[in-house]
Write a structure and sequence with these properties.
The chain is an alpha+beta fold and 134 residues long. The chain has a single domain, classed as GMP Synthetase, Chain A, domain 3, CATH 3.30.300.250. The protein has 5 helices and 4 strands; from the N terminus they run H-H-E-E-H-H-E-E-H. The protein starts with a helix and ends with a helix.
């Protein structure tokens, strides 16, 4: 009886250990899959759709935020302040995991106009992360 009581916690411990021992490439793939599956529920001002693409060999994730904004100078100015705030909020909520950035994964983020032209591009990596979190 006491051997069974010891075995159960050990089995649970080793199962958790195996699950938590993912390498960066596995975490990258898992993040992209999870992000895209939850993307329909994503809410942010002017964002109509968001998607993620993973580039395992480049250790990079591309996040695209499609908007209903036209490509104008006024919208460019608006996005220059709102997009970094959105990214900071996503990092703080772990929607963009700092852990992945710290493991060397680069996030290329694009805020796109309604015609799919780039309003603003931000790169999140170990160098840019502290500035973005200010």
């Amino acid at each position: 009886m006491s051997k069974k009581l010891i075995r159960i916690p050990l089995i649970v411990f080793f199962a958790l250990l195996i699950v938590s021992c993912k390498d960066t490439k596995q975490k990258l793939q898992e993040y992209v899959t999870t992000y895209n599956s939850t993307a329909p529920g994503f809410k942010a001002d002017d964002v109509t759709l968001t998607t993620a693409r993973g580039y395992i060999n480049d250790n990079k994730i591309e996040l695209r935020f499609e908007t209903n904004l036209e490509q104008t100078q006024v919208n460019q100015l608006k996005v220059n302040t709102s997009f970094p705030k959105l990214l900071k909020e996503m990092i703080l909520k772990n929607q963009i995991p700092k852990e992945l950035v710290e493991e060397g994964v680069q996030f290329d983020t694009y805020f796109l106009a309604s015609d799919n032209t780039v309003l603003l591009k931000e790169i999140i990596n170990t160098e840019s992360l502290p500035d973005l979190l200010k």
